[in-house]
Every structure is written in C-alpha cells, then in structure tokens.
Amino acid sequence: MAQKISALRQEIKRHNYNYYTLDAPTITDAEYDRQIKILRELEEKYPEYATPDSPSLSVGGPVLDNFNKVTHKLPMLSLGNVYSKEELVEFVERIQKQLKNPQPLLFCVEPKLDGLAISLLYEHGKLVQAATRGDGTIGEDVTYNVKTIKNIPHTLKGNSIPRRLEVRGEVVMPIAEFHAFNQHAIAQQEKTFVNPRNAAAGSLRQLDSNITAQRPLAFYSYGLGIIENGSLANSHYQRLQQLKAWGLPLTKEITLETGAQGCFEAYTRLLQKRPTLPYEIDGIVYKVDDITLQEQLGFIARSPRWATAHKFPAQEEQTRLLDVEFQVGRTGAITPVAILQPVFVGGVTVSRASLHNADEIKRLNIKIGDTVIIRRAADVIPQIIRALPSTSGEQSREIIFPTACPVCGSEIERIKDEAIARCTGGLYCAAQRKEAIKYFASRKAMNIDGLGEKIVEQLVDENLIHTPADLFHLTAEQLIPLERMAEKKANKLIAAISQCKSTTFPKFLLALGIREVGEATARNLANYFLTLEALQQASIEDLLKVDEIGDIVAQHIVTFFRQKHNQEVIQALLDTGIHWPEIKTKEHQAQPLEGKTFVLTGTLTQMSRNEAKQALQALGAKVSGSVSKNTSYVVAGEAAGSKLTKAQELGITILDETEMLSLLGSL
Ligand code: 5U1
Question: Model's pTM, two decimal places?
C-alpha cells in the first residue's frame, strides 16, 4: 500500500508541475480532482503512511489566531521607479558611471507583477517557511497558506540545491480566475474583490488556510534571498532558470536585453502584450544581470541601485461629473467630492473622487455635467485629471463653493494663503464631532475594536454621545436599538471601550486629534514632556525644543490645550480611568545595544558617520575606531577597505548600511 500511495503522490506532483509550471496539463481537471480524492481517501485509511509533503496537504492547515512574525535575514527591498525613456537612459548611464564601464550592459528584464511579495525558505530542498514582505524587515508567517498554492513546490527537484535557499517572488490571482471567483461570489451573494491584487492579498492573509486553498492563487519567482551551502551562476537570468529547473515557476516574459535601448524595446513589447497576459502587471523591471556588478553597485535607502521598475502609464478612463458634495472633516476642513458616473479604471469601479479644495476646482476648470478624465494608477486613489473641453457646454453647471457649513450651517472661513476652507462650528458641528470620535477610536489611537464609522454616526445622530468621553458612559441597552446591533455585539463593544482605557501616552495624545499632531509628533511630545500635565503647560518656546516641531504645530498644540472645552473633555476622559504606563526618562530607557562594540568603515550614503555613531550610542553601543576580536559588528559602507578585510579575517559580523538601519529601526 505504501508503494501505491507514494506512486499516486508522485503522479499528482507531476501533474501539478505540468499544469502550473509548464502551463501544459496532461490530464483534465476532473481527472486531477479524482486522483486527489483517491489519495486523500487512502491517506485517511492508512494514516501510518502520511508524509508532510503530500500533495493532498496542499489544501488546508490549522486555523490560526494570528500570524507569527518573521524577521527577514536579508531585508526584502523595494524598487525605485523610472517613468520615461529619458529616465531609463539616466538610470543606465548612472550605473555605467558608477561602474566606470562605458560598454553596453546586459539586463535581465522581467514583468512586474501586481500581487503580493513573498519569501519562500527551502532547507535541504523542503519548503520550511513562507513569509510576506511586511515592512521589508519583518513579515508575517504564512507558511500554511502558501503551502496551498498549487504551483509552489513543497520539495525541490534536481541536483545541487543549496542547503538553505530563499526564493522571492510574487503571489497573484490570475485575471481569469479573479473574474470567475467574483462571478461565483456574486451568485452566492458573497463578498467580491475589487481587483486581482486585493484578491491575492486578501486570500493569502486568511487565518484559515482552508479558505486560502479555495482561492486560485499562483506564484512566480523573481529573485533570491539567503543562499547557504550552494553555488549559483553569476547571472541573475541563469539563476532564475536554475530555479525553474528545481521546479519553481517563472513568468514566461523574462528576457535578456542589452543597454537602455534593448530595455526600452522590451518595455514597448510588454506594454503591447499587457492586455493578453494572464496576470496583472504594472510595469517592467530591469536588473543588471551580472551578480558581481550588482554587488559592486549596492543599495541606496531600501532599493538596489542595480534594478529599477519602469511603470506603465497610469490607467485613465473618461466619465461624467454628476454632482459635487462638500464633506466636513475632523478639523472642519471642507473637501469637495466629485460624484461620478461609475467607471471601471485601474482595476476598480470609481464613483467618487476628491477634488481637494476650491483652488483645484479652479485649476481643473470643471463644471457639473462635464466629461472628465479619471486616473487611477495602481494603488493610488482616483483622481480627476482634466475635463474634456469639447463637452463643457451649455448643459454644464458651475460648481459653487458653499459659504455656510452644509452640516451645521456655521460660517465657512478660508484663512488667507491657506488652500483649505473650514467650518467654524467646531464641536457644535455634528460632522466634526463624528470625525473626532472616529479618529479617537481608530486603530492607531485608542483602538476600540468594533466601533466602526456607521456606529459612531448613529450614536452622534441619536444624541447618545457628544464627545469621546461620552463613549465610556454608554450602556449595552443604549446600543442594542442601533442598526445591525444585537445584544452580543453591544456587550462586546462596551467591553472593548472599557478595555481601551489601558493605553499609552502617545496614543492618548494622538487620539485627542490635535491639528498636525500625527503618530511621530505624538511620540516625540510624549518622550520629551513625559507627562500630560507638563505638555498642557508647555509654551511655544518649550514646544519648539521638541524634535521636528515647528511654529505652526506648536501654535496648534498651545491653542488646543488653551480651549476650555478641550480641557473639559480631557478631564472627563481621565475621570473615566484612562491610564498609561509612566514614560521612562532618557536615562532609564532600555539600552538594547549595551555591551556591543561597533566599528564604522567606508562611506555611508544615507547618514553621516557621525549620525550613525550617535544613533548607535543612543542605544547603548560603544563605537570604536579599530577592529579587534572584541568588536561585535563592523558596519561597512561603500569602498570599505582594511577594516573590512580584518573583520572578515576575524569572522566578525559585517552589516551593510541597510542592515544597520534595519537593526536601528527594529530596536
Ligand atoms: N519581477 C520583479 N518584480 N520585482 C519586485 N523583480 C522584482 N524585484 C524586486 C521587486 C521588489 O526587488 C528586487 C530587485 C530586490
């Protein structure tokens, strides 16, 4: 029986390879499904023959509470962009100059898939871990989900596979599968996805991998991370071909091109081919093919100098401007919003677009009834870029900016030299109250789980709350009559409101919604003043001593704390029992690099050596001028010389600038 099961597994794996990697299936889907079914039945009957890499396990793993974090040993970088042939030529010339090599360079050219970047770690040829890119340094462990993607091999095939091998690439939902999935969802009255990218991301971030298993995802490799105990070709193109030989999927459109001209021709070809490709792409990637040259070129910030993405032109569509609504924001800012005849552009249906302010309306010279051009580049909010002049005729109607707030009727003021017009109603204005409370409850502020926008709007409309402090006096009985609110949900929300009372000082400060005080400023303020009382009493001069606070922000802060109703709301919030742990003074702050000695060598590109020294010292590190066996890390910038060689001889850990920055960022 063991032999029969093993043979069936081999056969199914071969079909997977033929179907997903070679795009050349040799059996029908129905026959494939039948074989999987037989294998599952046999494995159930004979559990003693179960193996962890069985193709039957490609569907489903345990349901998780949340994803574990994975630190990428080598950061997952992002790509710089070029948008024109001129910028491409400049990119190539820059490289040639740096390499002091006027000869035409060879580039590996690949489609840039519009999906989700992922890292696959193979040990002894077995897939042991899969992680999302995350912030480039820390991603999420999505191993169970990735194992359900049919064209990802659980075991590599062939010879000379490095002992550890990290493969990087993109997970996508192919366009045809995306449409089929959505059609099915519509028929079942289930949620649809707005575009293939969202579908891929949403499917991969499921805690239940059985759900991921039902989503038609595919993976395509584009590079490597860690390579241990193995040698690979010195050409990026050859390395990709080697991945293919080991069973990893590649896109079909990868080519080798010479110089900027060759790259541009590939760009033109791919742009033409774009509508016929099975997956969505948003550009093309050019990579210096020679790995030694890549290493010489190095990185700038979090992008390699040896590669760039050439974005395809943003996607544009035309539609009609049906009306303009005026929205009132948290700080009273009045934003004109275009109401559009719905139009499918850049992968989503767009029916509204911000017109930003009165100046923008003037600049665009648009009227209600005009035909307008909407642009929605990948991942960017839709924009009206112009009106078509021929259609601005008699039926068009002028857009009139209101002089009174559309929500509370208060006067609208526009401060000289400011583009934004504001309602002067303050917390008298229901719109501002709603936005202030939504902001207070938001994830980055007090993080009240379950207090969505619709609930806040109802609570304000029903006069159940006027300020954020009122949230803490709500009862489940008051919530139950609200729309789509049952007893269980109401109790859960009351518990979440109560739970949020335990917070941090920066989050509380952020939640107050002081103008221009975002997360970073709130953190700086908290670290400087340590207590709310000290901050409340701060003068403009005191505030200007805080990192990155200028005149305008300082003025907003002072004005905020001076206002009586703000003082009352703060007191009411504190009276509910909101509290946070004391902030430690600089001297008491953790010194995570205490006991470590760093040596800086070579030229750093993103900060001066002195800045790097100060940043390291601030975390407790010692920075020395010479390498010895007591050195913990050597940070090697560009053109590092004898210190780097000595560090290599002594086996000391060497960090490049990017790795040092991620280390600093992670502490
Ligand atoms: N095809 C392709 N996409 N892509 C994305 N190659 C590629 N390379 C990338 C990224 C972010 O980064 C490496 C050059 C580091």
Answer: 0.49
